[in-house]
Amino acid sequence: MKKSGHADILIFMRLRIIILILALFAFLSASVGGLLYYHSFRKAAFQKTEADAYSRLNLLTDQLSFYLSEHIKPVKTLSGIKELESALKDTNLDSIYQANQILDNFTKSLDLEVSYLMDKNGITLCSSNRNAKDSFVGKDFSFRPYYKKAIKGMPSTYLALGTTSKKRGVYYSHPVYNKNNSDILGVAVIKASVEFVETKLFPKSDDTLLFVSPDGVIFISNKSALRFKLLWELSEKKLDVLTNSRQFGNGPWAWSGFLKINTRDVTDKNNTRYLFSILNVTNYPGWEIIHLRNFKELEKQVSKPFVRVIGPIITSVLILTGILVLILYQLGIQEITKRKKAEKKLRISEERYRRIYHKTPVMLHSIDTQGKIIRVSDHWVEVMGYNREDVIGKQLISFFTPESQKYAVDVIFPIFFSTGFCKDIPYSYVKKNGEKMDIMLSCYGVRDENSDIIRSLAVSVDVTEKNRTQKDLQIAKEKLSQYSHDLEQQVKKRTAQLEKAQDNLKNLSKNIIASQEREKALVARELHDHLGQVLTALRIDAVWVEKYLATIDKNAESRAEKMCSLIDDTINDVRDMAYRLRPRVLDDLGLADALESLLSDFEKRSNVSCVFKHGEIPKINGTLSTALYRIGQEAVTNSLKHSNATTITVELNSDNEGIVLFIQDNGCGFDTDNDSESTGFGLGGMRERANLVGGKLDISSQISQGTRIWCKVKLKG
Amino acid sequence: MIKVLLADDHSIVREGLRKVLEDSNEIEVIAEAADGETALDEAMKKKPDVAIIDISMPGMDGLEVVTRLTSYCSDVPVLILTMHDEEQYVIRAIEAGAFGYVTKQSAPEQLVAAVKKINSGGRYLTEKASEALALRVIRGNKNQTLTESLSMRELQVLRKLAMGSTNREIATSYNISVKTVDTYRSRILKKLNLRNNAELSRYAIQNKLVEL
Question: Which of A246, A489, A548, B14 has the lowest CB atom count within 10 Å?
């Protein structure tokens, strides 16, 4: 449990880190996106700025060109004026005066710095500043290129620092011809100040605008400190050339400190970075206008609107991202907590299951599809005497006896892995101590989502003791069965003996009754046939005597009559005796007639109404008819003696099964449960007689409900 | 002279009876027999006018003799002579074909009359015997369910009452008390669901228990 808890915490931590990384990543993405956007924006801004600068530079160039070529035409005009030709051709005070007037006029009207006239040799003849301290008159400017070109017939412009005035200016020169235009007499020059151009076209600003000579000398700049500085470092040789040209005075020219990194970037000595643009000026070969912009300033300028516009968006996006991440993080935490709770629950239930599995005192085990044990309960290892390590991973059948192994592999495993269920399989385990243990195994298959059995869960119940008990019980049962058999035999033997004895007794009883009947019959016959006949004969004679004496002796006749009457009585007595002993009608006419006669006799001697009914009766033997007659006699006698009945009905019938004698009275009845009454009244005798002829006697009677007696005798054949 | 056959297994009785018959001077005993076979042979041989036969004899008994004789030679009427006075014998004898029935006890008084009557073509039955026969006939009729429920004595009393006998007369004739006769009468009325003697008489006539 601890281990898994630890693992949980680890997982939790990892998840947290993942979320954090995700958050960071999201933040980073936003930032990088912002940055990229910023960069592209800046690039676009830069490009735009650059384009702006370029077009500005172009405009500046055009303007500068325009300004610089402003006086080309006036100098031409000036050179064509005849007073200047005159002054050169005919040098005198008047002609010089005239020429000076013209020059003054030009200078004044065109707002020039100075305008002057040089002779053939380059010596200034006339000048508008002839009265100034630094008057050019008499000065030799033949070294100037504009003179050299003009004297050869080529008008020119030249930018230079005045050697006398120490002022920067644009020099326009034009040759002065004679009337025929055949000879160059001298050169007319106009010098225009560049101060105006500088103030007009190079306004003070953060940017640096430079007008640089082909040698790299900064001629015009909106930063005054940079004037006449060298833009790039120059070699000694080039410096010498520059010095000799005296174009920009005598020098020296300090290096501005600018260093070109690439075509676009320049740094100054303070390592400040500048954006660099350059453009040539038309008509002034080698001259360039250079525009330097402070990179930082530019950046600031570019970034400012971006920061102002995009900043809040980026910030809000970042904040939103942050909030989103926070929410996600919270959600994640919640989910994790939930999951942790569920996991805890699951763990608890699993723990409970595991505890139940292990602690329940039954033998549980699980095997995989290869038949290897993957789990066993504590009770299992305890009972089997193994250590858990000895068992896990082993084949289950290795703990079986060889017979069980065969049974399992051949029969049970195939069944189980197809049905996933089996119940009460009798196996035998072998414990570690070698002891054999009979078990009943029931198991079911745990299935995966594809319904394939992946493992089993099996319960083994120790039935060794039960089997032993069963065996003992079986033995005991067999023994008991033997005893019981013996006993039965003995009982049978005894029963047979008893039956024999009973039969003997029955036979004896039968014989007694039979001999009794025989005796009775004999006596009755003797009485009836012998004594009766004798008496009859005697009576005949007596009657004869009586008749004979009637005419002779009345006295004797009366005696004879008395004798006759006595003989009659005796005959009646004898007949009654014989009848009671055994009625001849039973032997002569059969049972039905005998019973009828009996009942009519009873009726005569009592006030009870006796009814006899009978159906067709098959011929029956004397013993049976005697028995039935005696039963009927006994029953009716009892009824007459004890029941106070007013009607007695006797029925004799036969059916397929045999003969039924039924006697019924409407008398007081008796309690059949009362033994003394049941066995009394000769009922015992009746039963015995019925039994002796193989019949059955049923008596049904209740107090004041009359009595009914059935005697049923089955007839053989 | 009426020729008779006398069959009885007791010689003393036979001798006495012969005396009784011959004393009449109208009857001649032409043959005697001591058992059934002899009686049958003699009857066939000698063709008596009347055969007087004891019902119980060794060998073939009297009833058997009557049965055979009536089938073999129906012109010899049989008079049954018997020691028994049970009605069952009378009925059997008549059923077998006998023409008369006399007990040995009453032979001195009745035998001659009986022989004469049979010889003249009639039947001889004592009152008791004829009554028994009548009852048997009635009982033999299965439709008479109500009558069937009566006992023999009740039937006797019923007949007497129907014919107009008084209780006292009935008591005397059956040798029973007058009170007993009255008991029988009330029992009969109850059983047959009748109210008085007049209804009782009508019932008896309707059911042919008596002849007018």
Answer: A489
What pLDDT, on a 0 to 100 scale, did the predictor assign at position A446?
A: 85
The sign one gets for the Cα dihedral A680, A684, A685, A687 is: positive
Note whether B89 contacts A528, CB cutoff 8 Å: no
Write out the H or E segment, with its range, that includes residue A674.
Answer: none
Question: Closest approach of chain A CAs to the CA of B50, in angstroms?
Answer: 20
In eight-state DSSP terms, residue B24 is T
Residue A636 lies in a domain: yes
pLDDT given at position A301: 74
Q: What distance in Å separates the CA atoms of residue A329 and residue A325, rounded to the nearest whole number?
A: 6
Task: Supply the range of the domain harboring residue A477.
Answer: 465-582
CB within 8 Å: B104 and A536: yes
* Beta-carbon count within 10 A of B2 CB: 19
The answer to whether the CB atoms of B152 and A603 lie below 8 A apart is yes
Is A237 among the domain residues?
yes
Residue A568 is encoded by which pair of tokens? Answer: 């009659």
What is the rounded distance in angstroms from the CA atom of residue A611 to the CA atom of residue A592? 13
Chain B residue nearest residue A537, CA to CA = B13
- B61, closest residue in chain A (CA to CA): A588
Residues A635 and A529 in one domain: no
Alpha-carbon gap, residue B83 to A529, rounded angstroms: 8
Contact criterion met (CB below 8 Å) for A290 and A222:
no
Q: Could you tell me which chain B residue has the CA closest to the CA of A646?
A: B187
Q: CATH says B2-125 is which class?
A: alpha beta
User: CB–CB of B112/B1 below 8 Å?
Assistant: no
**Rounded Cα distance, A301 and A46, in Å:** 10
In chain B, where are the structural domains located? 2-125, 141-206
Which of A296, A325, A342 is at the close of a domain? Answer: A296
ipTM for the predicted complex comes to 0.71
**In terms of domains, do A603 and A498 share one?**
no
| Residue A307 maps to a domain | no
Gap from A616 CA to chain B (nearest CA, Å): 13
Query: Cβ of B83 and A533 within 8 Å?
Result: yes
Domain boundary residue among A462, A487, A504? A462
Chain B contact set for A534 (CB, 8 A): 12
CB-CB under 8 Å, B13 with A533: yes
pLDDT score for A676? 62
Write out the DSSP string of A92-127. Answer: SHHHHHHHHHHHHHHHHHHT-SEEEEEETTSBEEEE
Q: What is the CATH number of the domain that holds A610?
A: 3.30.565.10
* CB contact (8 A) between residue B183 and residue A539: no
Residue A258 to residues A266, A272, A365, B126: CA-CA distances in angstroms? Answer: 6, 9, 91, 194
Q: List residues of A whose CB lies inside 8 A of any B CB.
A: 528-529, 532-534, 536-537, 539-541, 543-544, 568, 571, 575, 583-585, 588-589, 593-594, 596-597, 599-600, 603-604, 607, 609-611, 613, 646-647
Average pLDDT per 10 consecutive residues for chain A, totaling 717 residues: 57 75 79 81 79 82 83 86 84 86 87 87 87 84 87 87 84 87 86 83 82 86 83 82 81 81 82 83 83 80 74 80 80 82 87 83 86 87 87 88 89 85 88 88 86 86 86 90 90 89 84 85 85 88 87 88 91 88 86 88 81 83 89 90 86 88 88 65 81 88 87 82
pLDDT of residue A308: 78
CA B161 to chain A, closest CA, distance in angstroms equals: 17
Residues of chain B with pLDDT under 70: 138-149, 211-212
The whole-model pTM stands at 0.45
**CATH assignment of B141-206?**
1.10.10.10
**Whether residues A413 and A490 fall in one domain:** no
Number of domain units in chain A: 4
pLDDT at A703: 84
